[in-house]
Write a structure and sequence with these properties.
alpha+beta, SH3 type barrels, Arc Repressor Mutant, subunit A, 11 helices, about 325 residues, 5-stranded antiparallel β-sheet, about 40% helix, 4-stranded antiparallel β-sheet
Length: about 325
Amino acid sequence: MTVGRVSRMVQVLTTLQSGQRYAVDDFAEILGISRRSVFRDLKDLRTAGIPVHYDKKKRCYAVDEEFFLSPPELTTQEALSLLLRVHKAKNHIQLPFKESALRAALKLESSLPVKIRQYCGNALRNISIRPEPIARLNSLDRVFAQLQRAISKKETVKIRYCVTGEQKSELTDLDPYHLIHCGHTWHVVGKSSFHGGIRTFKLNEIRELTALDRLFVEEEEFDVEEYIGRAWSAKPEGRLYNVKLRFAPAVAHSVANVQWHKTQKVTFQSDDSAILEFRVDGLNEITWWVPSYGNAVEVLAPRILRQRIVKIAEEMVRSNED
């Protein structure tokens, strides 16, 4: 067995011990190898006496929790990647427990070999990341921790949340399933008693949160990717639309270079404009994204989206005239 093969198997085992759920395709993507190679490595780990098994319920591979492998030493790139996320990208995404992350980074730095520590320090001084717009959430740590605890314990919570676009709030009992960050803010996805089904709530719109002394049982394991499906961001509406937009030459290439949606299709025209097409679940979220490009974008389809954008433009003109 080659040194490279042994190193890769150690990577597979280290990944398994992270506690995250990984299927064969995930390993193949992380390690840059074929599915066949992943299966072979998993088989060799079992042969070596390492308790690797497939969890049918969670649909992923796992290693027995009692098994322990000493963490390998970090390479220069691995250390720099971790420190970059903590020191430079901390404002790029609104992560909870920033102070805890900083203390962890300091512990990591102090344990690094001198040469790697010096390299990372010099590299970080010459790297900057401009923060993107994020929603204000002064109590992120508290709300996030309460919801995360409720999710792990399968405990129902009562929340009072602001109704988007309205000057009122509503109460609902929520069985929280999953926390997800998208659209510049954090959301919690769960079963709402008020709505009689699964809904998505922004954490910065939650005004009150109380844990109830009541546990819930999921009908089946919740899959957030399956739920969100083809929503533009985080809130599916239960109806698919074929969206077709034409972007002017001045912005066409910059827009086309971003993967806005997993169904995105780009076609450049002879005049250097670009037509972007999406298969989107619901129009509410994309309706507020389109106007950000002003007169550099034209809605070709569907008609209902075009009408919404026209209405927004007309209301903007009226408000400016007033």
